[in-house]
Amino acid sequence: EVQLVESGGALVQPGGSLRLSCAASGFTFSGHWMNWVRQAPGKGLEWVANTNPDESVKNCVDSVRGRFTISRDNAKNSLYLQMNSLRVEDTAVYYCGRGVNWAVDSWGQGSLVIVSS
Amino acid sequence: EIVLTQSPATLSVSPGERATLSCRASQSVSSNLAWYQQKPGQAPRLLLYGASTRATDIPDRFSGRGSGTDFTLTISSLQSEDFAVYYCQQYNNWPPFTFGPGTKVDIK
Description:
A: four-stranded antiparallel sheet, B: about 110 residues, mainly beta, four-stranded antiparallel sheet
């Protein structure tokens, strides 16, 4: 069974940093693109970033470029999102998701990030 | 960036009835469109990809049609567990992947 478990969400002040982690199991992690998708409270879904299996390709949405960095450790079956210079508008539940056929076919339960003073 | 528009914003349907949801893209996305279901407090779940291919374990009452800019998701006979928010997502022109704003299906 595919499992994705996010961790690292917290309350952080504007301008602060946070690192989210996603532990994967039940599939060959090193064979899949992986994504971060976020959802602000009461709002819709927003794709944040993805990376290919060997981490040679990384993409992100314009609103986080230069502030967020996606990375992975295939030996540890883990995906990460380093978030710097956090803004109030980054407040959201952050989901880790497995890419299959360019859709996100498996999702974690999410990790809540609150950016507030 | 491709913008997706979903209609209606809310659809009120009685159990057992048919529901038809629409997703329109600002430019052609070919058949590179997925549909997701999200229930309150839960992560999204992939329903369809390639506009019409059901994901693993998705019941056949869910079907999708369309290509180019106009797509529909049909739920043939709504069950109680189908009341949720539905999102479309394009993966034809990316980055970024983009999602529609969602359609909430609630009980009439």
